[in-house]
Design goal:
With about 190 residues, this protein is mostly helical. It has 8 helices and no strands.
């Protein structure tokens, strides 16, 4: 007796796989700043990953996402070989950095990444250096730790100059910059 292929997968497995692919593409586009290049990267990464077609898409998502992240960082480094060579200097004068609470909530960030604020986020990201962009997307969008983010960037930095503390400082500065840019945009549109 033959059953249908992959009969033990959840009924929504195809939908979950499609959502995972969309999310992975969205992350690549935020990192690279180019949707077409992001699509090429995701397609080539998926084609190169040896995955059991009957595997749960959720289980495969992390593997593909990590490989797309590595590919995006490699492309960023290829475009500018010095982009990860040093940690950008800090803006220690910002009062936002002294606050205990985050300048943007998790909900605010989610809206900027996949909701109505996408165009504002992309416009702001375009003003960042490659290193700042890599830190922000990994921390805010992927939810990676400072240590994991530093390790990922150090694969392309010679010497390895990125520390968890440096990533944390740069991420906090980016959050403050984004919050300030959003507040400025809101003030301009209120007039």
């Amino acid at each position: 007796m033959t059953g249908r292929p992959c009969s033990d997968l959840p009924p929504d497995a195809v939908q979950r796989a499609e959502l995972a692919a969309l999310e992975t593409w969205r992350v690549a586009a935020l990192l690279l700043g180019d949707e077409t290049e992001a699509l090429r990267l995701v397609e080539s990464t998926v084609a190169a990953v040896d995955v059991d077609p009957c595997a749960d898409p959720a289980a495969v998502k992390g593997l593909v996402r990590d490989r797309v992240l590595d590919g995006a960082l490699a492309l960023m480094h290829h475009q500018d070989p010095a982009c990860f060579a040093e940690v950008p200097g800090g803006n220690t004068a910002s009062s936002c950095l002294d606050e205990d609470s985050a300048p943007l909530s998790t909900e605010d960030l989610a809206d900027l990444v996949s909701g109505s604020g996408r165009s504002r986020l992309r416009s702001w990201l375009d003003r960042l250096s490659q290193a700042q962009r890599a830190v922000f997307v990994q921390r805010a969008v992927l939810g990676r730790s400072n240590a994991d983010t530093a390790r990922a960037i150090n694969r392309f930095a010679r010497p390895s100059v990125w520390t968890p503390d440096a990533v944390g400082r740069l991420f906090r500065e980016a959050l403050c910059s984004l919050a300030s840019a959003l507040a400025h945009t809101a003030t301009v549109h209120a007039w």
